[in-house]
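Students often ask why we bother encoding 3D structure as a string. The short answer is that it lets us treat folding as translation between two languages. Here is a chain of 280 residues written in the first language.
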Amino acid sequence: GGEQEVVKKNMKIAVYQAAGTPESVEANLQELKNVARKAAEELRARLLVVPELFLTGYNLGAETLHRLATQVDGSVMKEVRSIAMEFSIAIVVGYPERLCDSNQVYNSVVAIDKDGSTLANHRKLQLWGDMERAAFTPQSDPQWHEHAIFELEGVLFGLLICYDVEFPEPVRALAMRGVHAILAPTACGTDGTFIATEIVRVRAYENNVYVVYCNHCGSENSLQFDGQSLIVSPRANILAQAGKDVQLLCGEIEVGVVEAARKRSPYLTDLRPNMYLPQT
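And here it is in the second language, the structure alphabet:
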């Protein structure tokens, strides 16, 4: 037999903090193409993460989001797949997802591999505020995590979206299933600074996982975004952090770092859920 292939248990990822072009899917696809090229060719990243609802813009209101909503296997996503294939990079992108033959629209994030295939597709669990509740249907499948986890070259990733990360439970649910890194595209305003600087770091530390928080910057229809996207290690160290402007971050996800954190702070194995979760 031939030599066994050594599984490389670390991965370089790129995180794009973007202002985007609200309501112009075409312009956002072009921007995605430009940044995918840069991430792949200059940064040599294997995976690119962009913000929540990046393809359309976020603060647009229910009517516009419904008009721009697209199916995961539709023509817009075909463009994203061709970008992934052209630059041989996996892409995690937020979009409003329309179900076939349905009026339901989800706030979703899809992970597409470098061969154009779908790795995972997460629908937001926790909708934030009146605009989102008017526009979107929340994820209601108790087995949601099966659609949110994907493996790439020995690294196990889990997808969450923005407000999902502000609850300990979704992050813990993915961590308990062995995920090494949580990828969280987001659209967080300037009143959310505490989330990026403190909560995201705590989530990483208490779950022995990397957390990648990818925010918008600039403003959309009176909503001023906070920027401050970051890549946090399982020890809560900030490996890369953006300011308030458009920026492409880069960081390394290392499985060994996760394993060491699990040994040093064994929260997941020491957990006694039957002592504090309500008995059903």
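Translate back mentally: The longest strand covers residues 90-98. Keep this in mind for the problem set.
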